[in-house]
Amino acid sequence: MNRFKNYYANAKAELLKVIFPIKEQIRSAYLSVFIVVTVITLFLALIDGIMSLSLSSIIN
């Protein structure tokens, strides 16, 4: 039982050390991820379109 109390006290002490992000930090991280994913998606769509056109012109 003593080990459980010690574990619980240590877990509680560690949780008190955690610094949770504020709303502005979450929003800026979300915006950054959204922009990066959008840019990569557009780049891959462009590459896919170029490769599709080039392969279709080679085949025909």
Automatic annotation (TrEMBL):
It is found in: Cell membrane; Membrane. Pfam families: SecE. Essential subunit of the Sec protein translocation channel SecYEG. Clamps together the 2 halves of SecY. May contact the channel plug during translocation. Belongs to the SecE/SEC61-gamma family. InterPro entries: SecE_bac, SecE_sf, Translocase_SecE/Sec61-g. This is Protein translocase subunit SecE. One of its GO terms (molecular function) is protein transmembrane transporter activity. The keyword Transmembrane applies. One of its GO terms (cellular component) is plasma membrane. The chain crosses the membrane at residues 29-47. It is a single-pass membrane protein. GO terms for biological process: intracellular protein transmembrane transport; protein secretion; protein targeting; protein transport by the Sec complex. It comes from Arcobacter ellisii. Component of the Sec protein translocase complex. Heterotrimer consisting of SecY, SecE and SecG subunits. The heterotrimers can form oligomers, although 1 heterotrimer is thought to be able to translocate proteins. Interacts with the ribosome. Interacts with SecDF, and other proteins may be involved. Interacts with SecA. Keywords: Cell membrane, Membrane, Protein transport, Translocation, Transmembrane, Transmembrane helix, Transport.
